[in-house]
Amino acid sequence: MSITAQSVWDNCLEFIKDNIQPQAYKTWFEPIIAVKLTDNALSVQVPSKFFYEWLEEHYVKILKVSLTKELGEKAKLVYIIKMENTYGNKQPFTEKIPSSNRSSVKSQDVDIPLNNKNPELRNPFVIPGIRNVKIESQLNPNYSFENFLEGDSNRLARSAGLAVSAKPGGTSFNPLLIFGGVGLGKTHLAHAIGVDIKDKHPEKTVLYISAEKFTQQYIDAVKKNNRNDFIHFYQIIDVLIIDDVQFLSGKTGTQDVFFHIFNHLHQNGKQVILTSDKAPVDMQDIEQRLLSRFKWGLSAELQTPDFETRVSILKNKLYRDGVEMPEDIIEYVAKNIKTNVRELEGAIISLIAQSSFNKKEITIDLARVIVEKFVKNTKREVSIDYIQKVVSDYFQMDVDTLQSKTRKRHIVQARQLAMFFAKKFTKASLASIGSQIGKRDHATVLHACKTVDNLSSTDKQFRKYVEDITKKLSV
Ligand code: ADP
Ligand code: MG
Fold first, then answer.
1. Ligand 1: which residue has its CA nearest to atom 20?
2. 239-269, pLDDT tens digit by residue?
3. Count of alpha carbons within 13 Å of 304, Cβ hemisphere only?
4. Separation of 267 CA from ligand 2 center, angstroms?
5. 173 Cα–ligand 1 center, Å
6. Residue 31 belongs to a domain
7. Is residue 388 located within the same domain as residue 320?
8. Each residue of 181-225: pLDDT tens digit?
């Protein structure tokens, strides 16, 4: 007898039936239809998204055991979800349909068991093993509301977040856009909302993703000709959280696809939560139609926390880590690190580490040394534009001259110095430095860095240039 999807599934069912309650079997297994078998993968059709989530949550073990018995260690289960047909006769996701079935595509007859009108759900988050389609929220449970201390600087955003998590999609805060500078808690708050929604509404599909990863997935999907699967995947999410949407600037393809996903979710009463390092008015290279969508809901700013809030954030962190620290030291750190909660935490962590590695007591002096390092290190961030400006000023030329194609020696040198400092002081890649400094390629930048290294060890005058400019860039 040849092995078919049906025969494999029948054997699985026999095993499952023996091992679970009859009622559960009837409810959760009888409605499942075996669809196809390819290599080690059995595809089964389930009636809804909720259904497969339930199976994955409660029966994943027994499914795995029974399927492994039939198909060996590499057994895989692929769910096909029978979606409600919200697209009328439009067929946006027909990619996987074998040609022999195409003629039935237009049929509205949903009783046909092998109704291939229903797409396989392809999950761009590759999750190995049996859990092929389970949508993991990608949430960090440590980023909770409880740990997100309230202060004047975040009260609006925090309470809007709470309102959204009480009624996702059911408030006028849709989308909820949280914006503010680096290290002020945007990512934390975005997770906290997701975590709280999962807690209060476990049936909702929540997904957290950075705009960067979203973009990458989209590019991959286009490459693999899966654009429709990608859109489809995102359209079934109940609560979509996209972090750092400013990353989409200039990426018109991704903006376009996001626009469509956004509209679909919004129209269906799904919640969208976004974060950005800028207010919508200040976002550059984001399409107008997308910006106007961002403004439909609420934009709430995270500001720099005041002293009291900084102290309570530090105390909370110490409390959670079970570390005691004298009050005056906590206050010293909170007084001196003002603009970034991440740095605030970083300073306290290095303080704890220093004192325990070196078996030193935590003193104000140690705190002073560490805070100084922190404050200094963080000033280090200079932009390539700024470097070009400093270098051209130093040689009394303008930036256009520095970038020009000329081979005049002193201009070439200035350009090479700018490239050298860009490499030294920024995290930009060689290619990116080259494109910003007169549209050169990465090899030119590499050559420039080597030349500057050589010259500064052989040429006294040149070494002075390097030292002078270093000083200018360091203040
Ligand atoms: P952003 O995404 O805005 O750059 P993050 O959310 O990554 O900032 O926050 C940086 C760090 O500061 C995280 O460890 C976060 O837990 C912490 N943090 C920020 N705001 C608060 C707050 N109000 N209470 C407690 N921790 C906070
Ligand atoms: Mg962030």
1. 185
2. 999 999 999 999 999 999 999 999 999 999 9
3. 11
4. 27
5. 22
6. yes
7. no
8. 999 999 999 999 999 999 999 999 999 999 999 999 999 999 999
pTM: 0.58
* Domain that residue 432 falls in: 384-474
| Separation of CA 183 and ligand 2 centre (Å) | 7
149 lines ligand 1 (CB under 6 A): yes
Asked, for residue 132, whether it belongs to a domain, the answer is no
Query: Following DSSP, what letter does each residue of 342-367 receive, concatenated?
Result: HHHHHHHHHHHHHHHHTT----HHHH
Pick the last residue of a domain from 302, 335, 355.
302
Q: Same domain for 370 and 404?
A: no
- Interatomic CA distance for residues 98 and 80, integer angstroms: 15
Same domain, 393 and 434: yes
Ligand 1 pocket mutation pick from 150, 159, 188, 316 by most atoms within 8 angstroms of CB: 188
Q: Is 281 domain-assigned?
A: yes
Residue listed under structure tokens 């059911």: 170
Tokens 């290290």 identify what position? 183
Q: Are 347 and 316 in contact (CB under 8 A)?
A: no
Residue 134 lies in a domain: no
Residues 366, 256 within the same domain: no
